[in-house]
Design brief:
Two copies of one chain form a homodimer. By secondary structure, the first copy, chain A, is α/β, with parallel strands linked by helices. Chain A folds into two domains: 244 residues, Aspartate Aminotransferase, domain 2; 123 residues, Aspartate Aminotransferase, domain 1 (Alpha-Beta Complex), CATH 3.90.1150.10. Helices cover 42% and strands 14% of the residues of chain A. In chain A, the strands form four sheets. Chain A has a seven-stranded mixed beta sheet, sandwiched between helices. A three-stranded antiparallel beta sheet of chain A has the order 11-14-13, covered by helices on one side. In chain A, helix 4 links the parallel strand 3 and strand 4. In chain A, helix 12 runs antiparallel to helix 13. The longest helix of chain A is centred in the last third of the chain and has 21 residues. The relative contact order of chain A is 0.17. Chains A and B meet through helix 1, helix 2, helix 3, helix 4 and helix 9 of A and helix 1, helix 2, helix 3, helix 4 and helix 9 of B.
Amino acid sequence: MNSSMKRVLMGPGPSDVDARVLEALSRPTIGHLDPAFIDILNQIRELLKYVFQTKNQMTIAMSGTGSAGMETCVANLIEPGDEMLVCINGVFGNRMADVARRYGATVNTIETEWGRVFEPEQIKQALEKNRVKVVGIVHAETSTGAHQPLEEISKIVHDYGALFLVDTVTSLGGAEVALDQWQIDAAYSGTQKCLSCPPGLSPVSFSERAVEILDKRKTKVQSWYLDLTMIRQYWGSERLYHHTAPVNMNYALFEALKIVKEEGLEKRWQRHQRNHKILKAGLSAMGIRYISQEGHGLPMLNAVAVPPGADDAKCRKQLLEEFSIEIGGGLGALKGKAWRIGLMGSACSESNVMLFLAALEKCLLDQSVTFDKGAGVAAAARAASEL
Amino acid sequence: MNSSMKRVLMGPGPSDVDARVLEALSRPTIGHLDPAFIDILNQIRELLKYVFQTKNQMTIAMSGTGSAGMETCVANLIEPGDEMLVCINGVFGNRMADVARRYGATVNTIETEWGRVFEPEQIKQALEKNRVKVVGIVHAETSTGAHQPLEEISKIVHDYGALFLVDTVTSLGGAEVALDQWQIDAAYSGTQKCLSCPPGLSPVSFSERAVEILDKRKTKVQSWYLDLTMIRQYWGSERLYHHTAPVNMNYALFEALKIVKEEGLEKRWQRHQRNHKILKAGLSAMGIRYISQEGHGLPMLNAVAVPPGADDAKCRKQLLEEFSIEIGGGLGALKGKAWRIGLMGSACSESNVMLFLAALEKCLLDQSVTFDKGAGVAAAARAASEL
């Protein structure tokens, strides 16, 4: 790789990383038990509590990517034989069910069409049939761009005495995530989406209720690496050695979280919402259709149908090679049929939206796809001036 | 943390990271499916094969620290009910047994005194009693500084039809590790020891025999995150999405491995051996005793008994605060009783040895510990001129 290679990262993550974060990443490595590093971990915890909007003391960055965070939550809450309900409307719900089965859970699933969100009534019916220990759902389904409302479902889950586990990998830092207000018991995220830090860590937060469940376990957590009963002694006042924390990745996360705090969560959500609307105006004017249910589209992950006549792989290749823009292809059932256009963190800017629309127009023209030329950029510019 | 803080990392890891590696770490993040990144992964694989001295095609960097590598090997080789023999002579053997039990193995253990290594006969006797699927052992026991010979034991393990699993976390890149010649079936390591890359990745290699065992599994691997049956499709020609690889950490590992290759493995081992001898001459002249069995000390990890009259924690604190030198304290049974002095990768230099001996002398003088003043540095200088 050319060391100066720079992409515009508008896929499903990683997103563009701020120069401040890259600089932090390159600071000299110090020991994982060095008081100066422990101080950084303490500050990371406080900043993660801010972005998760929680007072949860057990709020930490796991030493793996978002999927390790998913596995952490399942591994620590589930004991063999426990019942779990997983809501599936895309790749990541499927993944959660797979993980839960590996940890010995008896998994019930409910499904809804990819792109759609779950209605509270569906969860209620499922819980009426089977009482479960944990209900797992995806807040921001990265494979479909669907934005799942959580507050009402959370009430139902707790009415039935279950714990509420939520995947916030793609939403955290780009849309509201309010663990305490929404009474979410366990949540995990990734660093490489709307936090705009390189991939490698997974923020995880457990409510007091979830910690009680952890304390009452009768069996050891099946994964040693992800065992929070041990890891919390490293993140806690004991600072007991468990594994060697990824020191430089934590420098980067610390800096990325400071940037989020400086911008302010609400302003950050508004920026994501605004640029999403501009992009959507542009794509719609080009006749490109969103996959997610109307009114439930994610701002930071725009999943759209590949327009008729366009070659998926060829378009993405041209975007990458001619414009150095990365967007994502479809996953699972949507392979070859969808584009996933990210507007995450630092990459979520009006100029990136305009650049992308102009570049996409060029790619579609080169493939002789029929659409209203120039309409995309014009509509986006109009939307930008009105928002 | 002061952003310019710099330590001399002479503990059990992380070790000092070369400026080239830190620079690589800070390059702009690109996508984990970007052809330019895939190219880096391919080159990392080739360089890992070089440092592991193997032709194993399944040689990859797992997205976690060394302990995740340990868990990867166990999780993928063990199915519930399988028998495993774990050799314990320190913290990391204990950990391997713990991990294996969590994955449903019936674990037999043999133990030897901390600091000592296992004799082939002990392994033979254990295997005579119980036929097992996997034998696990630690090549470089980071808690005691013991350097375990492997070749003869490997023959015995294979005579009994078992797989040979070896922890090379601390040895890889600092002492000979020859997977193919020694017929090791599965090995894992860490990036933050003798490879002098920040912590966050774990090199893992599986022999063809180990891959066959993986192919014949009847059950899914219990950990989703560490499941090599899926991860190999990302590292293989399919490049199928599993999880988002820690992109920048892989830049760093790539650069660190290039530095190892430039120096050459044998020269690198010799450098570690030479500086170890210089350090040992100095410490011995100060009356400080090694914990590891005579003739089986690790070059890169010098575990010594805290000398009578010295306060462990106070000494390490003074070294850190006055000289910015980090060394490690004792782990497990050796807590408060041992110092672990690392000479790993970039930190393994004659000047670091001299600096450390002088600094230690100052700390011991401040505590009125009785020893032959100036003898340490003088003996080390003499050894250096003779080696």
